[in-house]
Amino acid sequence: MPEPSARPPVPEPKGPSITRTLLVEDDPNIVDMIRVNLAVRGFETMVATTGARALKLLETEAPDIILLDLMLPDVDGFDLCRQIRETSPVGIIVVSARGGERDKVTALNAGADDYMTKPFGIEELMARILATLRRTRPAAVAQPTSPLTVGDLVVDLAGQQVTRGALPVHLTPTEFALLRELVTNRGKLLTHAHLLRRVWGPGYESEIEYVRVYVRRLRAKLEVDGSPPLILTQPRVGYRFAPE
Questions:
Q1: Would you tell me the crossing angle of helices 173-184 and 208-222 to the nearest 10 degrees?
Q2: Which residues contact 107 (CB under 8 A, 6 or more apart)?
Q3: Bridge partners, residue 234, by sequence
Q4: What is the bridge-based pairing of β-strands 238-241 and 231-234?
Q5: Which of 43, 65, 84, 115 has the smallest number of CB atoms closer than 10 Å to its CB?
Q6: What Cα–Cα distance (Å) separates residue 204 from each residue in 154, 198, 208, 213, 236?
């Protein structure tokens, strides 16, 4: 009697994906503190103590988020932030002992999504990590199907892309999130607190410099010299996307 044919193996169910964090930090005490606290929350942490190692891990390991110290032995942290942003949309949180307003603005201009000053509590760090992940890994939501066209600029919210003259305009996830909020409320004045709450999340309402820096970044990428501005400023209040 022939033996019954073997059943194909049943694949094991896959668990939830693990968030991969790249910690760029050369202080072993801070490395241990962050790595242990992230591990108990289900995060996988890779560590780079130099800028060169950070760029290598970014290329080979595809982290979901980067925690970046500014004071590294081989590279200026601002320059490293710019290099990362030139090649990747990954979320970047600068974690530094340098707490001056100029340092924060410089980091945001270099492409950072958020800025934390040492020392900090682990709960604040986790809140900022989760807020950044929500922006850089947004859940699918219903969006208008018709792209917005202003001159030769086309903003396709459903496709999450922006083009000018058929050429792509590369935006970071945070830049796109800010543009989406402005475009979906076209012509409506949005206060600084509203934009911070909607784009960065609850608890960021006082970080007005974040909005100012990212509006400047959007203007530099979207507006053309000699053409009417797309993003209008209401001094000390907020911004609106130019009405039709």
A1: 90
A2: 70, 77, 78, 81, 94, 96, 115
A3: 238
A4: antiparallel
A5: 43
A6: 30, 9, 8, 14, 17
Give me 80's structure tokens. Answer: 């490293």
pTM of the model: 0.84
Rg (CA), the chain: 21
Report the phi/psi class of residue 6: left, alpha or beta, with left for phi > 0 and alpha for psi in -120 to 50.
beta
* Cα gap 119→103, rounded to integer Å: 16
pLDDT digits (tens, 9 = 90+) for 45-55: 999 999 999 99
pLDDT digit string (tens) for 15-71?
446 899 999 999 999 999 999 999 999 999 999 999 999 999 999 999 999 999 999
